[in-house]
Amino acid sequence: MMKHVNAGIIGLGRAGQMHLRNLMTIPEINIIQVADVFIDKISGKLNDLGVTNQTTDYHELLSNPDIDTVFVFTSTDTHEQIVTDAANAGKNIFCEKPLSMSHDEEASLDVLRAVKKNNVKLQIGFNRRMDPQFRTIFENVREGKIGTPQMVKITSRDPDLLPHDLIQRIGGLLQDFTMHDFDMARYMMGSDISEVYAKGGTLIDPTLKDIDDVDTLALVLQFENGAFGVIDNSRRAVYGYDQRVEVFGSEGMLKAENVNNSTVELYNDKREELKKPLPMFQKRYKEAYTEEMKAFVDSILNDTPLVAQGSDVIMAQRVANAAKKSLDTGLPQKVNTKFSLD
Amino acid sequence: MMKHVNAGIIGLGRAGQMHLRNLMTIPEINIIQVADVFIDKISGKLNDLGVTNQTTDYHELLSNPDIDTVFVFTSTDTHEQIVTDAANAGKNIFCEKPLSMSHDEEASLDVLRAVKKNNVKLQIGFNRRMDPQFRTIFENVREGKIGTPQMVKITSRDPDLLPHDLIQRIGGLLQDFTMHDFDMARYMMGSDISEVYAKGGTLIDPTLKDIDDVDTLALVLQFENGAFGVIDNSRRAVYGYDQRVEVFGSEGMLKAENVNNSTVELYNDKREELKKPLPMFQKRYKEAYTEEMKAFVDSILNDTPLVAQGSDVIMAQRVANAAKKSLDTGLPQKVNTKFSLD
Amino acid sequence: MMKHVNAGIIGLGRAGQMHLRNLMTIPEINIIQVADVFIDKISGKLNDLGVTNQTTDYHELLSNPDIDTVFVFTSTDTHEQIVTDAANAGKNIFCEKPLSMSHDEEASLDVLRAVKKNNVKLQIGFNRRMDPQFRTIFENVREGKIGTPQMVKITSRDPDLLPHDLIQRIGGLLQDFTMHDFDMARYMMGSDISEVYAKGGTLIDPTLKDIDDVDTLALVLQFENGAFGVIDNSRRAVYGYDQRVEVFGSEGMLKAENVNNSTVELYNDKREELKKPLPMFQKRYKEAYTEEMKAFVDSILNDTPLVAQGSDVIMAQRVANAAKKSLDTGLPQKVNTKFSLD
Amino acid sequence: MMKHVNAGIIGLGRAGQMHLRNLMTIPEINIIQVADVFIDKISGKLNDLGVTNQTTDYHELLSNPDIDTVFVFTSTDTHEQIVTDAANAGKNIFCEKPLSMSHDEEASLDVLRAVKKNNVKLQIGFNRRMDPQFRTIFENVREGKIGTPQMVKITSRDPDLLPHDLIQRIGGLLQDFTMHDFDMARYMMGSDISEVYAKGGTLIDPTLKDIDDVDTLALVLQFENGAFGVIDNSRRAVYGYDQRVEVFGSEGMLKAENVNNSTVELYNDKREELKKPLPMFQKRYKEAYTEEMKAFVDSILNDTPLVAQGSDVIMAQRVANAAKKSLDTGLPQKVNTKFSLD
């Protein structure tokens, strides 16, 4: 008899609905109940999908004894409260980063303390770790196929600018976007980032200066184990979502190019190219989103390690904060790599 | 409100279960009931998936007025009877090729007459037509990107030999395997095959001669519109499932290479290659299996054209029969391209 | 002290001049004298290159005792006479195929008998054998990397139509163009072609029928060792010179795609493609032309095997003749694989 | 009548001999005389190549009135003297970088003043600018295919460590190796580097610290026009010579991957990879070495612009010096971009 995770889902906005569809394809997950403050607007759509147990109040869901695990897809400003409540209700938790709106990490550490006290599992949504391409690199690095890692190289470019008000809500380029690259860099190298230098500017949208943000970044990383890293970012790559990772080591190199929408080649006199990088994160990381959920289910049912833990989000945030300071001061910045909840 | 197809599924062996999981990911499909003569063996697994309305008797399913569409995944020898019964019960039908065990096409034509008389839709499982790569070629050919098609080139190699008794049940290389290539060739060129020459032998398993089969084939096709084709087949490609299509025309060329399991490149002193062609048809054509079902649903709900019709299976079978005769006689063979149910 | 080949060059038309420049880059070759009936027209150009010993009369060159090796780049209709004369003068000979204008092979065999009698080396200009890509396939096949070869697949398409009068002088598609593919097929498989089936037509230029030629061909080959082959040809690929070879065997597959003019990728919103197959045989086979000469020099100086011998041109011609008969009769044709000069 | 460059070559060590062979393939170059202090050791080899006018004294060559252009391939410590003498003798000059051993640029500026005063042409051997791949990027950037350049990304890794004494003679990683990348970055972006940050260490050979060098580098560049750059370097890539360039801009991206030794793909059960990056600079930049010479010839004969001028070597050196200071201090460093010989 198959073991199951009995799940509640909190937050069914656009992201939540994407995750819901992915969760429904995993046989080990029973979706017991869903909660959203605006549940009425999407009730019909949910019924069509067979998800009929709906509520506006996430507390109702947390008090449901049939539910052992909750997936939190609400907006960032609610994470701190909901994750703490879920931990205190004894549920395992999946939550997108970050855990708190506050750049000061104490608020996030408090959330992690609640998780620890209640002895529940918390997985952070660093989905790129489970992207099949990057995961293949990760595994081959761990198997020693390239010897000792010496350099990680990440190119990460978004297809287009975000609205200024959204940036002000979710954080600037370093704290919303590059943060994923900092996590990827740590993950690949198996070592913490101990120093960061960031240089950037507004080459695309000069008005970003008004909200203290940039659209173009070049960074150098120093890892605790002696290795190095380079990252380059842009807010707007006209050709799509550009996501590439390379790890170089003493015995070789592993690299993942962009995933294209097609393998078909057209040769005509114009030599038009049909292959294009996938345009949006939803498509590019579709498998990653499902794989991170499968890994979380596996961790719950079989006690395998979590893909990304609470400490990972703290560490990535510290680097983002240090990089922001580097950008502001023009000087490289040290990063604290010690982590403790005590 | 979303329109739905209310489906019954007949046949839940290995193939049927794969299709069932795919069908469950399509929101427009409600699975009302499933039937299999050995339903007891898989009842628990089906319950786990939430498919609880089960029967051993497909007649019960066909008489269920809530069902408008049936998916037939039973063994080939039952197709003739079940598709005829389903047509007479007024259900739309999806069925894998062929429609009959008989190489004489009269039995298949009788099935198609029942479909026509009852005015139901019948889609044949030529799934490769909906493979995203091949579909991209098809669409670009239709859009005139390579001008007038002059040559189609298909390489199709299976990963390994089949057991002799299975071959005897489902047909030899030409009639089970190459038949898909004949259909692909017709589909790409938009023209019927009017002549075929086949040359082959037993380079892998000489005992295949005992059951009148070959493991290696080289073919030349002549199309009614004047174009040409070449096909090469093998029963055993040690590197995986090799499925490539190329169309050449007056203004250019389109080609689809194999789909690999990874885009990651490993450079070390051994220069080991991580990219491998997908090993099995289930994985290689996973998207194609889902896409053909989506297209069928779309045809039912919105009356769009079927991906592959009854006449398509008759045509592919005629070429397979002619190719077998060519192999036996050493001479090219004409193929009848006239089709009528009268 | 470096050993040298002391060379005379006969024929300095466009092809001859291309070869001359290649020969000048090989340090082991001293160019002693050149001959061309129209030497006056190009005398200045030759002087600029430092090639000052010029004559209109190739007999003068053949009687020059300082010359041990001649390179024959004259038009096909002169090969029979000049190669025979050169053999009788005791010179080693490099000559483009074919050895005679006559489709009847007796004339060519007479040339080979002269070569044998005088015990000189004769290398035939099957330059593609020394193309670095195809040579890599050849060597890996010989090293057993793909086990026993079972299928060779050749796509060979020219960039554009030839003038009708040129075709009438040098032979039709099968005898001028496909002949190179027949030689490549034999070379790769290490076995003679024992049967051929050719199907073709005039899809590009219907007036080719007037001179008994075709512009599009699809062929099946049977090899003496049991293996098979497929070839497809076209007179006009709008995207350039299309030259691809693939060998499939019991333990794997080797394939060479086209050589592009660039590795640079351009990603913009039009996704324009910069990589294009090399457009002309002179550029595509530039290295092959030099490598075949180096191999010939090596064979002369160190008695290594010739890249392509007289018997190779006879064999390729036999297949071309049989293929022409197949095209005319619509039936496969056997090919005589016995070779003897007695 | 073809116009010619009448050339003298000074320095025929390993590099000089490679260049000599390249120069001999360019018809517009007449090699009048060669000079090397150890000419006796290679005299036989030169005679074999037909280069018989040899001397040990480069002054003799400079006073030869038949020579209009000299190619300087001697060791770096002689550049300052020889280039100055050649300029004062009124010869056009090709010379490898740098112009002087001194890190202080005054010595180099004195050389350039002699060149200017005598009104001769001086081309610097920044051969990579004429690599066909990088040149294709350059030209497409100039044609506006990617809009305004915003980021340049260079990966440059050598196949293996150099001996410590050689490093001490030619300079450390930044000043010998990365200097080429600084020049490439300037060339691609069409703007000077105004600030540099360098981070590095000894991950391969810790004893490099003894000679004040590193083996691994990560750098961030700021350009005068506002754009950015990232560079990563390693002394030892076990898989060969890794040379990649990418330019990203407002309307797209151009990138050049490594050039492989083959396009052949081998698919067997081990999935062994035959394609390897070219292993050595001599092979990787073979075409670049010839193309830079052709461009120099073209500049002399037709007064087209030089590929790389004296000011280019000064600018690259300044960035290298600033990067070294950044490495030593841990702080980013400004670079002076003003250039004047007055």
Describe the fold and architecture.
The structure is a homotetramer of 342-residue chains. The first copy, chain A, is an alpha/beta fold. The first copy, chain A, has two domains: 5-120, Rossmann fold, CATH 3.40.50.720; 129-283 and 310-334, Dihydrodipicolinate Reductase, domain 2 (2-Layer Sandwich), CATH 3.30.360. Helices cover 36% and strands 23% of the residues of chain A. Chain A has eleven helices and 14 strands. In chain A, helix 2 links the parallel strand 2 (29-35) and strand 3. In chain A, helix 4 (79-88) packs parallel to helix 5 and helix 8 (173-189) crosses helix 11 (310-329). The longest helix of chain A has 20 residues, at 310-329. Chain A starts with a strand and ends in an 8-residue tail after the last strand. Chains in contact: A-B, A-C, A-D, B-C, B-D, C-D. Chains A and D meet through strand 7, strand 8, strand 9, strand 10 and strand 11 of A and strand 7, strand 8, strand 9 and strand 10 of D. Strand 12 of chain A pairs antiparallel with strand 13 of chain B, so a sheet runs across the interface. Chains A, B, C, D: Residues 6-126 form the Gfo/Idh/MocA-like oxidoreductase N-terminal domain. Chains A, B, C, D: Keywords: Oxidoreductase. Chains A, B, C, D: This is Inositol 2-dehydrogenase. Chains A, B, C, D: Its EC number is 1.1.1.18.
